[in-house]
Every structure is written in C-alpha cells, then in structure tokens.
Amino acid sequence: MTPAGDVFISINNKLVGSGKVTPLKIMPIDGLAVGSDPGGSVGEYAPGYPIQGKAELTLKLLPIKGTPTTKGPLEQIKDEPNLPRVLIIGDSISIAYTIPVREILDTFANIHRPPANCASTKHGLESIDKWLGNKKWDVIHFNWGLHDLKYMGPNGENLADPKLSSNKQQVSIQEYGKNLEKLVKRMKKTGAKLIWRNTTPVPEGSKGRVVGDSDKYNRLASEIMIRYGIPTNDLYSFSKENWDEVGRKANVHFTPQGSKKLATLVTESIVNQLKK
Questions:
Q1: Collapsing DSSP states into helix, strand and coil, what is residue 210?
Q2: Which among 20, 73, 115, 141 could disulfide-bond with 195, CB atoms 3.0 to 4.6 Å apart, if both were Cys?
Q3: β-bridge partners, 45
Q4: Which domains does the chain show, CATH number per domain?
Q5: Rounded to an integer, what distance in angstroms lies between the CA atom of residue 194 and that of residue 87?
C-alpha cells in the first residue's frame, strides 16, 4: 500500500501543485478507478472508485502565472521591460542551447536569436544587418565556423568528401578571417558587449569535415578577438575534454544533455558581461 504523505508537483523547478496521499483499506474489489475533475484546470482530483491495494490521491493545482512558453528556439520572443537584451548568433550548436539559456536567464535577460541557422561567415555578412535590426543590444554572443570549414562539392553538394580534390571548404580559412573581422566591426557599431564563442570540435568520423580544422579556424579567430579586445567563451576546450559525455559519435552535434551543459557556460559568460 502506498504510504501517506504530502505530494508536490513541479514543472521546470516551479511548484504547480500540491496534495496528499491517503492510504485506503484493502477492498474486496479490483477494477478501474473512475475519477472526476470538478474544477477544470484549477480544481481537485479524487478517484471515485478505489482499487484494491492502492491509495487515494487528492491534488489541488495552483494557478500558473503568465503564459507557459511553447516557443521553439527560432521563434521570436517578446521583451520583458527593463531587462537587458541579449542576442545569440550561431549555427545549429547554438540553436540547441538557446532554449536552456532562456530558461536559466528567464528573469535576468531577454535572450534573442535570429530565426534561422546563421551558418557561415559568408551568410553572416549577407544577413547581419537584418539580424541586428535597429534596437539596442546589451550583449551579443556569437560564433561562425563549422559551416565555414565544411566541404562542399563542385555542384553544391553538402558535406562532401574532403579527400576528393574537386571538393572545397565552403569558406577558406583566409576568407574566413577577413569575413569574421568585417562581422566584428559591424557588431561593435551596436555598442553591445561582444562575446566570441569559439568553434566546437570535429570528432573522428564526422562527414564532410576534417578533424583538427576547428582548432585552425579558432586560432585565427583568436587573433582577431585579441586585437579587438573581445573575450572568448571557450566551448572548444570544454567540448574536446568532455566529448564522450556531451557529444555524439562521428557527429559535430551534441546530445540534449550536452547542449544543456554548453548552455550553463554560455549563461555564465553572458552574466559576467552584463555585470560589468
């Protein structure tokens, strides 16, 4: 028989309901419980027909303040007044950590991102004005890299075999440096505090990319960031050291838990800049 006691229900660490478990005497009947919810979304639920050996559970749900968010990472959010505005720019790695960053900083900052994969620096130069818009940004946390160093076929084939001479990186490392510096200059004009998030590793077996290229592109990016006084959120080192725990096999992407770990590091870097 289920022991008596208090019951608390939490969603995303927020208390949404509470109640009690009351043991029932063993009844000589087995069957399905028939319940009722007289109060709709805020009411009391109690089984109307006890099952042998079970316990009665009575819950009272608490009203939920605000509107529960169901927005995906690419959907645009409405600013909470008086909170700083933060823009996350990046590819699918950043898309995966956008929601957990929003959840952690729910009452601390408005976390925005472009409604798209920001892809390569070439695409960044084509779209940066649209992404920045005309509103004030307090912090911009940005990355380009994995889409620059990936290999493309002569007819636009994505993630082509790097071993074939006909296939080339989408953006060469020389062009990457030039593009990245132009993007940095454009973002600095906003007056926002900038955070460079370096490019995460390419694990063995990943299609269309070469192991070690992230490090090469990061070294060039680091020179640019030092020149412009921009701090680096070093997700590359963290990811490389912990790939078995956070990353996927033969894939540049992270597990859901891995993305949440990245989100904590992203959050720390954003908060540090907002406090300055």
A1: coil
A2: 141
A3: 59
A4: 5-61 (no CATH), 85-274 (3.40.50.1110)
A5: 10
